[in-house]
Structures are given as C-alpha cells and as structure tokens.
Amino acid sequence: MSAKTSKTESTTGVFRLVYRHLTGLEYDAEPRTNATWTESGDKVLHESGRARRWSYRPRLQRAAIRWTWTAAAAGEGYAVFAEPDVAAGTLAAGAAAATTWAGYKTSEAALNFTHRRRVVRPLAKALAKSLENEPANILRDMIVPRRTDVPDAEVRVPVPDGWHGDRKTVAAVVAARLGGEWDADWRMHQAPFSAVFTRTPEPPGMVKWADVLHHIAANKEGEIFVGLNSRGNPYRGDFVREEPMWGLSIGTGGGKSVFLQMVACQLVAQGAEILAIDPKFISLDPLVGIPGITVMNDPRNVGAMWDAIKDFRREMESRYDAWVLDRSLTFKRKVLIIEEGNMFSAISKEHWREVKKKGDPVSPPVWGDIAAILRMGRQANMNVVAVFQRMDDAATGNQGLRDSFGFRVLGRYTWQAWRMLVGTNPIPRSQKRRGRYIVVDGGEHVWIQAPYITEEQVREWCLARRAEQGYAPPMPAYAPDVATVTLDVTSRGHDGRELERVASLGVTRDSVTPHLILVKGSPGGESAEVPAPRYSLAAAAREGIVPLTADALRQAKRRPGFPDAGEDGMWTAEELQEWHANRPSAGRATEKEAAGE
C-alpha cells in the first residue's frame, strides 16, 4: 500500500513540475515578485528579499520562453533519428551559440567579481558600524548595480530587525562611497526591512548669472557660489577652511575660463585682489584693466609671470612678519589664479631650459614659490585657484602639490583623471554638458551646474563693484611703459623699526594695499624711469634682436663670454647685441650658428 502511494505521489509531483514549467510558475510554486500574467513585477515578495531578473517577467512571457525551449529540444531530439545531417548542423549552431553565451556569462562573472571586490564589500564594511550589523550579513542581502551613475540606479541596503540608528549617517556613507547625491526610501513597515537609495535628478541644464544673483548676495566672507546642485539648491566653496586652495581639472570645452571669471566676479564683490596668470593671452581678457586685478597674459614673457608669483609669495611673507608682531592684524584677501596650468607648466619648463645654469635644480623655481603659497597662504588670507586640463604631478612641477588642493572641481574628466585625483569606486560617468561639474569636497561628491556669465557682464559687474569700493578708474588694459615697484622682505627683527618697515609695505589692521604702480601719464609717473625691455632667448630670436635661432643662442650660452642673465633669467637687447658684435669670428660664425651646428 505504501509503495503504491509513493508511486502515486511521485507521478503527481512530475505532473505538477510539468504544469509549473509550461505555465511560467516558479518550480517551487513560491512567487518571488508581484508579477502577474501580463504585468511585470516591481516588488519582491519572497522572504529572502531578493529575486532574479527572470522573476520580474510577466508569467505569459516566462511560459512562452519555456514552450520555445521545450519545442526546440523536442524537435532536435526527433531530428537526431529522422535527419541526422540536419541535426548535426543544428547542434553545431547551437554549440556556437552556447559558447558565445558562456563567454558572455564568464565576462559578466568577472565584471561582477571585480565590482563586488572594489565596491560592494567595502561598502558593506563601511555600513557595518552604522547599521550595527556584521559586514557578512549586510553583504548577503545588499544589492548594488554595477552602474550606479545612471538615472534609474537603485541600491538596496538591508536593515536589521530592531535597528534604531541614525539614518543620515547611513545615507552619508552610501553617498560618500558611491558618489553623487541619493534619495533614501526607508522601508521599515514590514520585514525584511531595507533602505532603497535612488539617484536624485540631475542639476538644471542651464543656469544664468542673472538668475543666481540672490544666491551670490547671500555669500558670507570667503564663500563663493559655484553652482546649483541636483535639487536646485546653491552649492558653495570657500577660502576659509583648513584646506582653502582650489584645484580644477576640466577638459577642453568644459567652460574653465567662464568658471574662473565667475569666481573672480564674486571675489571682486568681496573686495579681494587678484593676480591672474593666463598663458593663453585672452582666456581672462574681461579681467584685464580691472582695478585690483593684475593679469599676466603674455606667454612670451615667462619671467614676468614668475616675478609676479614671487612678489605674491613675498607679500604673503610680509603679512606673516606683521602678524608675528601683532596677532590682531587682519588682511585683505588676495587670490592667485592660474589658468591653463598645463600650458603654464610647459612654457615654464621651456624657459627654465633656456636660463638655468649648471648645478641648478631640474624643476623651475617658480614651483617652489607656488608650493609655499599653497602650504602657507591660508593664515595670510592668500589663496590659489588653479585650473588644469589634466592635473597630474608633471603639471604641478613634480612637487607633489596635488594634495594641497582641498577643494576640487572636475569636468569632462577621464577615468584616469578620476583615479588620480579622487580614487574612489565606482567612477561616476563624466557629463559633457558645458558647466556641468562634480565637486569633490572631502568625502562629498556633488554634481552642479555652474552659472554662465558673458564677458560684458564680467566687466560691468567688476567695474561697478570696484567703483563702490572707492577704487581709482581702471588702468589701461595694456601699458608697455609700466614699472612695478615691489619691496623685498628680508629682515625678521621684532623691534619698533621692523613694525614701521612692515607698515611701509601697506600692511594695516584692515587690509594690505596693492603694490605701487607707476604708469606713464599718471601722477608720479611722468618722471618714473622705465626699465629697458628684457628678453628670453626664444623671444630674442623671435624678435630679431640678434640674427640667431633660439637653439643657437642656447648653445652659445654654454660657452665662455656669453653675458649672464639677470635675476629674471632674461637679457636686455643691448647685452645680447653687444655680445653678438664682439664675439670671436662673429661674421664667419653667424650662418653656422644660425643653423644650430
């Protein structure tokens, strides 16, 4: 009797399995999702809280797929006996398809393994403390898709029974590890409990300067509005933090110059003074001639750019001299802006090759000045904003300066740039929209849309703010007969005379006055002695000061009798022409040296 009953139950079990197979049911008859005959599922019903993609399909679709595979298998089985040759061809095609499918699955498995090792496991460990749970328990039920940078990305984090911790901390950990901004949906009404994180919407597609003036007016001292985030709220950077230097890595066409001009406008509104290094002539053209802004934009005169940066450093040191004597002193903010840092690095290397002597360091000395400003400028209210197309170590003088930029903005970046500057996984997909940047501020990664401002708006805004601040009318945009008088700082004595000397530099309790500029035609400028123009070797060759190529001049510089360069690494036309006229066998050697032989 028992054997007969067992046989009957076995037969019934087979019929049930066949029925479930042909009608699209799960083989254990336990539904994984809320999918119906005609509608896809969107909610997990199984007690495990997990479901395969198959279980989300409508039941009719699952049944049709199973019928197709069943019919194909039956047909192939019949063909093996009725038409062996046809069956062999079909089997070969099937084997090829199976091999392709197996290769695809192997590739997927490798990608999933890497994703789990680099992203999922570290996230589970990071959440363990906040969720008061073991990493293994979190890892078992946590779902993190490989692509978390797409709009429909969904991350599911299991929450243990009885947990009453800080939800904001959990959300902050997820955002820090995955990057960007996430909205959390805490599903705590029915077990299994979980938190489902979805991407917030993208920032606005276009932000105009006129539309954000009220946000700019709300800036506190040292704060700069940089754009609107995904919720349309203002996002600000500042120059008063522990790491107040800004580094931008933005690819070609990403709006670097407009961003810098927008930042400069807000600095001007706060009364700050600016030294701008622009190796591309016109990137910061709207700022030229604005009172309180010095723009060095001639790439043929690298020495002048270096001198301006050295003066910036000297002023920083003079502020420290004053602050040591009187800790109550406050200083007007002054910002060094370096546009096109990669180009500045390249022309600095070229200039240094021309002027350096035996025993000089390999790197151009200007990077020593920049390094000092980056590391010491905060206390003196002097900051740096540097923008690069690729902010690698070579672009910053091989001085290890990248870590000195605490506030970073990336746009149109490559995955290599992200690994180099941020180093977190997964890597957010770069967006090509002009002005669309991701701000990396500590552990926070926030997408923003920076405002767009025209060149006319830049000049109008800056001139109006300077007039309100009592500045003199703007200087000429370009004055060839300008002599800049700077005061060197060498003494560190702490007596009364030193305080008077520091005061003579323009340091007061409220501000630091700009360097004295004597312009021909202005009061005090008529009798000012204008220094003779100075040239690098490349500039001397280009301007025809002597009839030699730059390479020939570089070779001649290594020989005895060549005049020594000045402190700026350049020569006057008179010095070069006198050397050329008096050198041995001048007439016979000119053509040979001109050919670089």
- β content, as a range? 5-15%
Strand order of the largest sheet: 8-7-9-10-6-11-12-13
CATH topology of the largest domain: Rossmann fold
Q: Count the DSSP helices.
A: 17
CATH domain class name of the largest domain = Alpha Beta
Give the fraction of residues assigned to helices: 40-55%
Total domains: 4
Radius of gyration: 35 Å
| Dominant shape | elongated
**Number of DSSP E strands:** 17
Could you give the distance between the termini? 111 Å
Largest sheet: 8 strands, mixed
CATH architecture of the largest domain: 3-Layer(aba) Sandwich
Q: Supply the helix-strand structural class.
A: alpha/beta
Mean pLDDT: 82
CATH homology superfamily name of the largest domain: P-loop containing nucleotide triphosphate hydrolases
Unreliable stretches covering 5 or more consecutive residues: 475-502, 504-528, 586-597
Summarize the structure.
The protein is α/β, with parallel strands linked by helices and 597 residues long. The protein contains 17 helices and 17 strands.
Give the topology:
Elements: H1 2-23, H2 59-82, H3 84-131, H4 135-141, E1 154-158, H5 167-178, E2 182-187, E3 194-199, H6 213-217, E4 223-228, E5 234-238, E6 246-250, H7 256-269, E7 273-277, E8 293-296, H8 302-325, E9 334-338, H9 341-355, H10 366-376, E10 382-388, E11 407-411, H11 415-421, E12 436-441, E13 444-449, H12 455-468, E14 482-485, H13 496-504, E15 516-519, E16 534-535, H14 537-543, H15 550-557, E17 571-572, H16 573-582, H17 586-594
Parallel strand pairs: 6-10, 6-11, 7-8, 7-9, 9-10
Antiparallel strand pairs: 1-3, 2-3, 4-5, 11-12, 12-13, 14-15, 16-17
Helix pairs in contact: 2-3, 3-4, 3-5, 7-12, 8-10, 14-15
